[in-house]
Structures are given as C-alpha cells and as structure tokens.
Amino acid sequence: MSLARIYGLQARLRSHLQKSVVKLATTIPSSQLLESVPRRCIASGVVRHEKLAPKPVPKHDWNRAVSEAEKIVGYPTSFLSLRWLLSDEIANVALHLRKLVGSNHPLLRTAKILIYNGKNNMQAWGLIVLLISKAVGHAPTVPDLEQDKSAGVLQSQRGLAEITEMIRTAHLVHQGLVNLQPLDGAGNELGSDSDTIFGNKIALLSGDYLLGNACLQLAGLRNQPLIELISSAVRDLAESNFFGERDQQNNPLPSRPLQSSVSAESGSSASSVDLSFGDLVDNTQPLSLAGVMDNPEKEWALRHILGAGSLLGKSCQGAMMLAGQPEPLQRRGYMFGKHLSLAWQACIDLEPFNSDQLPSGGQFSLVSAPVLFHLDHDPSLYEEIQKGLVSVDNVDFGKVHAKVMKGPGIERTRALQKKHSLAAMDVLNELPPSDARTALQNIILAMQDI
C-alpha cells in the first residue's frame, strides 16, 4: 500500500470520527451539552445560536501547520518512509530495543523522541526539503519520467528528503552511546552492566545501518556534485561531536567567557554579528573557527550549524541542484535551511525557561543560547558550570536556571530567534507565491509557539 493511499485512509478515518462526534452531540439534550461545555456554542440538529465566548484557538498551530504542509507534498514524510520502518532490519532493532526497557540507557530517550515525533525535534526535515523543492520548481529540461506530478516534486528530490532524515536520525542514535570507561581506566575489563553494553551495541549498529543505507541511496542518485555536498554535511555532523569542551559522556560545555565581557546592551544588536564562517564562499570546505570563542552568538551558531544547520541547508541546496536551478538560487536554498534550523534551535533553547522554576531533577543544554548570553553578561556563573567537567550531573541546574531567568539571556535569545526567522522569510519572499511557500511560512510562524 502506498503512503499516499495510507494518508488518504487516515484523512477519511478522521472525517468519519468527526461525523460520529457530531452525530453523538445531536443525541444529547442541548442543556446537558451547555452544562458540560459552558463557554462554547453547541450546534445540534435544531438551529440554535448562543452568544457564548468561543474557545481561543492559537493563531499559528504547529500540528495544523505540519499537517497542511504534508498534504501539499502528497503524504506524511516525517520519520523516514514506511518502507524503512517495515523492513526486517528495523523490526529486529525494535525487538532488541525492548530489552532496554527499565534501564537508563539514553538510546531509549532518543527512540521516544523519534517515534513520538514531537515538535521539538528536527524529524520534519524531509518535509521541509520537499516543500522548498515544490516552492522553487524545476527547470524545463528535467525529463517527465523524473517528475512526480501529483506532488509537484521530482523523484530524486523525494529520495533526497529520505536521505536527509536517515542521516539525521543516524546522528541522533549514535549520540545515544554511553562512555563505559573514563579515560584513565581505558583498557580495563568492562563492568557487569550488560544492559548498557547491549544498548551501546544497538545504538552503534542501528545508527550505522541507517547511515549506510543513506549513503547507498545517495550514490544511487548518480550526481557527483550532490554526493560531495551531502558528504560535507556528514563531515560537519562528525565535527560537531568534537567542538568545544566536553564532559566524560561527551555532553557539551560552554567555553570560558572573557572577563571583559561585552555588555548585554552593546551585544544585543545581533544583526551586526557575521555568521558566515566561510560557507558563503565554498560551503563544502570546513567551517572557519576564527574568533568563535570570543563571541557567544558565534559559538552558539557554529555549534548548531555543524550539528544541524549544515545538513538541512545543504539538503535544500541539493534539492535545487537536482531541479536544475542556477547556482545563485541554490546558495539561497542553503541559507534558508541554515537560518531555519538556527531559528528552530533558538525556540528549543527557550523552552526550559518558559517557567519560573525548573522541575526537580530537570536539566537543559549548558550550551543553549540563554546560558551563553548570560555568561557573556555575568562570567561568574561559569564557576558553577565548571563543576560539570567530569559530568554535567554535578552542575546545580536549578541555580543556573534561576540566574539565567534574571539576566538578559532570554530576551537576547528571542531576538536571535527573530533574526534567523526573518532571514529565512527573506529567502522565501524571493520565491513566487505558491501553496508550498505559504506552508513554509506557516511553519516558521508556528515555531513562535514552541
């Protein structure tokens, strides 16, 4: 059964359920309905109008934005494709993964994020690649057999969207590996924690499987410039795991702030910070590290361009390459994906600071934008963060959270998110009006509610 047919069945099932709810509502007296839902207007079989306050609906709903976008490209694209999920290899991985239930292996958290596909992860990347492909269109020289006219994209672009999600997923799964020995004890016999050893094997082999299939599918596109471009994105993902200081479990730590830190007022003009890192000239070369550790925004941007933005940006660029678009437009596609991923990351970084108090035992990234900006404002906070050189669990996250809440880091992060959202919007505004362009704009606007 094709994914398009599956999506159609889901839509019909949803419509049937809605009709069932309406039918059920007509069988209940309107007085009881009004008692149970006192602030909503209930429409029954008899024409009835109540001047009641309607239920507030968010202006830009994330789930609705993604759902509408998936309809535009033909069917849901999140979390790889159905043929990968139903393969024997993935089924075996899922079977072995059940053995880890009850342990504290981080691979379980990664699997939960991927399966539930919440709005705070980047598993909608394939969808974004397909939307930008449809919004830009393709050159007239593209053969008809290559076109998927029902969705308005090319078959090769759909394959690239799958490749992008497989590479991203493989990277997330590989990050679930646990360091079983500190460096000073390397070479000794491993402990008796069989669950952790088994979890490491599953994380390593399943990530390798996804990455290997992505490389095989990429080679099948038979496009040498595209292979070089996506390969450079894989290199950037690898570099992201070695950038900056780390604890013994490879959790990232911020660099030591300069004592003569820039004030929040003078550093709040984020538009003056150059975030090119040399990728405007040739983005297949390694990114430049010059002057990165002297600026919190540069450090934050480089971390997340290496770990996320490079892959999304180069996938958007590659989609335009497959469509036969000119090189300047391909470069704009790279900038769109790069800025979109950074805007997305800024929204995610703000989430732990949406409440005044951190839940008991709660943790967040110590290299998130609010923390880095606060260190620029108050370098004394680094004394607490420095306790995490062995393990980030030694850091008092509640203390760090309280200090960041009182500083300028949150407002500067909001300004940072707006900056990258507008930069991504600027690229979209250069494209002709279309339903795909509107869907991408809605996704950017819906990120404000994350």
UniProtKB/TrEMBL annotation:
Gene Ontology CC? mitochondrion; transferase complex
Compositionally skewed regions (Polar residues) per UniProt = 249-259
**Which molecular-function annotation in GO is an example for this chain?**
prenyltransferase activity
Q: Which SUPFAM superfamilies match?
A: Terpenoid synthases (SSF48576)
Q: Which domain of life is it from?
A: Eukaryota
- Record's compositionally biased regions (Low complexity): 260-273
| One record GO biological process | ubiquinone biosynthetic process
The leader peptide range reads none
Name the InterPro entries on file: Isoprenoid_synthase_dom_sf
Disordered as annotated region, ranges? 243-273
Q: What is this protein called?
A: Decaprenyl-diphosphate synthase subunit 2
What organism is recorded for this protein? Answer: Anopheles culicifacies
